[in-house]
Amino acid sequence: MYAIIATGGKQYKVTEGDIIRVEKLEAAEGDKITFDQVLMIGGEDAVIGNPTVSGASVSATVTANGKADKVIVYKYKRKTGYHKKNGHRQFFTEVKIDSITK
């Protein structure tokens, strides 16, 4: 069985035991969190939400908080001598999916 959840403005397809990186959540390592925005539950008998599946939730455990690899942002305009280099590291929370409830 799998579920499609929405968090941090993105959608993720998860199954039990998956480890995913989501946008930073206010939770410490080892905390239990619940994702209530379940858009779909798939498997033998799929349930599609309108927009979410009522009563469904996905529980997970926070395994790590951190920063992703640096992404270089380079702006350049030809013939004018303009160039600007900038870097960005996005914060993330790594979670392990424990269970999916209908």
Task: Provide an overview of this structure.
It is built from no helices and ten strands. The strands form three sheets. The protein has a four-stranded antiparallel β-sheet, with no helix packed on it. 0% of the residues lie in helices and 63% in strands. The N and C termini lie close together (10 Å).
Strand-helix topology:
Elements: E1 2-7, E2 10-15, E3 19-23, E4 32-35, E5 38-42, E6 47-48, E7 57-67, E8 71-77, E9 82-88, E10 91-101
Antiparallel strand pairs: 1-2, 1-5, 3-10, 4-7, 5-6, 7-10, 8-9
Characterize the overall form: elongated
Q: Could you estimate the helical fraction of the residues in percent?
A: under 10%
Total strand segments: 10
Based on secondary structure, the structural category is mainly beta
Mean pLDDT comes to 95
Order of helices and strands, N to C?
Answer: EEEEEEEEEE
Cα-atom Rg, whole angstroms?
A: 18 Å
Number of helices in the DSSP assignment: 0
Q: What is the makeup of the main sheet?
A: 4 strands, antiparallel
Distance between the termini: 10 Å
Beta-strand proportion: over 45%
Uncertain stretches of 5 or more adjacent residues: none
Spatially, the strands of the biggest sheet line up as 2-1-5-6
